[in-house]
Amino acid sequence: MDKKILLIDDNESILDATRCLLEYFDFEVDSTTDPDYIQNLGKNLPDLILLDILLVNADGRDVCKKIKLCKITKHIPVILLSAQSEDEVREAAATSGADGFILKPFKIETMIAEINKYLKE
User: Fold this and answer.
1) Could you tell me the domains of the chain?
2) Contact 14, 51 (CB under 8 A)
3) Could you read off the pLDDT of 80-112 as tens digits, one per residue?
4) Which residue among 43, 55, 70, 72 is least enclosed by CB atoms within 10 Å?
């Protein structure tokens, strides 16, 4: 069974490119520009969330905190995505409760390795 990833980013081009990349590696991908989307998934939760830090209508760090404080979603690994400096992203991950981070632009191998680290069966 394919692992399901929820991709949240405010840039449609990044969503499309990343979704295609992840699907190539046999992940089931749900993508959205809506940071509140996860609240409407019910029991159809993803196995992992890729979340951009700088969203137009929200701060990805705050979105991550909400995910990690919710009893239903706190177990889901969250990986932050950002083009900020590594130190800034590392701090954002630590303070928001994220499980990891990936710097943009990223190498395909780096992204897949980081995802697989959290999706071990």
Assistant:
1) 4-118 (3.40.50.2300)
2) no
3) 998 877 788 788 888 899 999 998 888 999 999
4) 43
3-state SS string for 28-96? EEEEECCCCHHHHCCCCCCCEEEEECECCCCEHHHHHHHHHHCCCCCCCCEEEEECCCHHHHHHHHHHH
33: tokens are 């520009």
| Contact by Cβ (8 Å): 117, 100 | yes
SS3 16: helix
30 band by pLDDT with thresholds 50, 70 and 90: very high
Backbone angles phi, psi at 50, to 5 degrees: -105, 120
State how far Cα 94 lies from the chain centre: 15
